[in-house]
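Repro:
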Amino acid sequence: MTPASSTCSFLVVVAVWALYAAGVHVFAGTPRVVGPLVRADLPVFPRATLLVVWHVTTVVLLVLAGTILAAAFSPWREPLLGVALLHSVGFLGLFLWVGTKEFGEPIRLPQWFLFGPLVIALGSSFTSRPAAMTAAGMLAALALVHFVWAANRPWPARETGGLGSFVFPETAGKQFKSGLPPRSATLAVALALLGMAAIALSSTAGSSWRWPARVMAATFLGRGIFGFLYRPWSPRLSQQPFATYNRAFYSPICLLLGAILTVESFSG
C-alpha cells in the first residue's frame, strides 16, 4: 500500500467512524432522548423546535462524515479536514462540559467517547503518518487514563464505585478493595498501552515492526468483535450500564483501533 493510498484508506476509516457517530445519534438517541421529550406534555412550539434542533444535529453529523470522505479523494484535503476537525472539537467540548456541569462526571453523558477518537484522528491527518499518529495518540490517551486510575482517581466518574459499574464489570458483583483494580495491574496495563503506542509509531521503520503492529490490530479487532458476541456465555459482562457502554463505545473503539493499525501495518 503506497503512502497516498494508505492516507485515503485511513480517511475512509475515519469517515466510517463519523458515520457511526451519526448512527448512534439517530438510532440510539432518537428513541432514548427525543422520544420521551416529544411524548411529554410540552407546548407545541418548544416540541417542534426540539425536533428541528435534533434533526439539524443529524444533518451536521452526516455532513461531517461526508466531508471526511470527500477529503480522502479531494485536492482540497487540508481545508476540508480543518473544518471537520473544528466541528469535532466543538462536539467533544460540549459533551464534556455539559456532562460535567449537569452530572458532575462526564461519563454520564458518554457521546464524547465518539468524538475523542475523531479529534485525535483528524488532528493526526495533517501529519505524514496519520494512521500511526492516530493509533499512538489513542493508545497514549488510554494509557494516561490508566495512570490516573492507578493514582486512585476515578475520572471520568466522580467516585470509584460509579466508575466500576461503567468500566469494570467485575465490580458489579464484588467490589475491589479500593473500588478500582489493583494499582499494580492498572500500571501494567498503562505501560503495555504505552509500549503499543511505541510499536505503532515504529511500524513502518522496518519490516520487523510491522508484524507486532498486525498482531495488535488482530487483538483489537478480536476484542471489538467479542464485545458484541459475549452475552450468551457471560451474564456477568451483560450487566448494566457496562453492557450498553461496551456495545456502543468500548467495542467500536477497539474495532476502530484495529482498523487503523491494519492500515498502518500494511502501508508502504
